[in-house]
Amino acid sequence: MFKEMGRTNQAVLVILYVLRTVKAFEMEIIPAERIVAQIGGTLILTCNATGCASPSFSWRTQMDSPLGGKVSNHRTHSTLTMNPVSIVNSHSYLCTVICDERQIKEKSVKVELYSFPSDPIIEISPSLVAGEPATKDEHVIHEKDFFEDDSTNTETKIVTYTFQPMAEDIGKEITCVARLPIADMDFEPKERTSSQKLNANFGPQNTAITASPGNSPMEGDSLNLTCVTQSNPPAQIVWSKYLAEESIQHLIKNNVLSIPHVHFNDSGRYICEVINLVTNKTEKATVDIIVQGTTLLEF
């Protein structure tokens, strides 16, 4: 009796095992339901079938538009490859699977597109000149939205801003932030940023000459004339001297004019001319030098 019961239990277990190994016909699309793709990229949709020995696959758009991709069928799955993704791929794609010419299953996936391929580019006008109007791309003190633009074409958006840079703006960082705030779309990044340090050209300005040891050196002493100016980029400095007949004698191109041993004929008016070759601006400073002679005492 116990032997018979043991055989019966074993038979039941075998039947249950067989039932559990039989899979029903099912299908799925990967990614499921919704996918966000970037224009210019590659998108692969995969339609899988299980529980069917020889499934038959077909793809179409729900609007019966061209697929805009390449279909590749395999034994248990089919792929639809879009490379590159373009605006024509903005559809809901339907995969149909037929099993044994009797069972049919369908699922769809919605493809939504965006284009945000690179960081913004900051372009500064040929040269920023302090105190003069200039333009640069969108930055943190200026903002423009394109929400009203319903175009589905990929476009390059350009925003310009005019401001007057000052000398103290040199070294400051300007930042351009571009955002793509599309609601309910899961993609990254939704924000791209570029930064650039500002290098405003200015000057020359506040040009002055200092004489060491002074404007009235003794004959035989050394004399250093130093020309100081503010300029970006650094200015070119040219020294010259007025002659008696009101002509000009050009000397050296350096910020320091050094005379190791001055003589009486070194007296006169010295001119420091500074030239900013970028801004094409010039400024001058002058200094009068009178060389003193040694006085001899008579007894």
UniProtKB/TrEMBL annotation:
<dbReference type="InterPro" id="IPR003599">
    <property type="entry name" value="Ig_sub"/>
</dbReference>
<dbReference type="InterPro" id="IPR036179">
    <property type="entry name" value="Ig-like_dom_sf"/>
</dbReference>
<keyword id="KW-0732">Signal</keyword>
<feature type="signal peptide">
    <location>
        <begin position="1"/>
        <end position="24"/>
    </location>
</feature>
<dbReference type="Pfam" id="PF13927">
    <property type="entry name" value="Ig_3"/>
</dbReference>
<dbReference type="GO" id="GO:0005886">
    <property type="term" value="C:plasma membrane"/>
</dbReference>
<feature type="domain" description="Ig-like">
    <location>
        <begin position="25"/>
        <end position="105"/>
    </location>
</feature>
<dbReference type="InterPro" id="IPR013098">
    <property type="entry name" value="Ig_I-set"/>
</dbReference>
<dbReference type="GO" id="GO:0098609">
    <property type="term" value="P:cell-cell adhesion"/>
</dbReference>
<dbReference type="GO" id="GO:0005178">
    <property type="term" value="F:integrin binding"/>
</dbReference>
<dbReference type="Pfam" id="PF07679">
    <property type="entry name" value="I-set"/>
</dbReference>
<dbReference type="InterPro" id="IPR047012">
    <property type="entry name" value="ICAM_VCAM"/>
</dbReference>
<dbReference type="InterPro" id="IPR007110">
    <property type="entry name" value="Ig-like_dom"/>
</dbReference>
<feature type="domain" description="Ig-like">
    <location>
        <begin position="204"/>
        <end position="288"/>
    </location>
</feature>
<dbReference type="InterPro" id="IPR003989">
    <property type="entry name" value="VCAM-1"/>
</dbReference>
<dbReference type="InterPro" id="IPR003598">
    <property type="entry name" value="Ig_sub2"/>
</dbReference>
<dbReference type="InterPro" id="IPR013783">
    <property type="entry name" value="Ig-like_fold"/>
</dbReference>
<protein>
    <submittedName>
        <fullName>VCAM1 protein</fullName>
    </submittedName>
</protein>
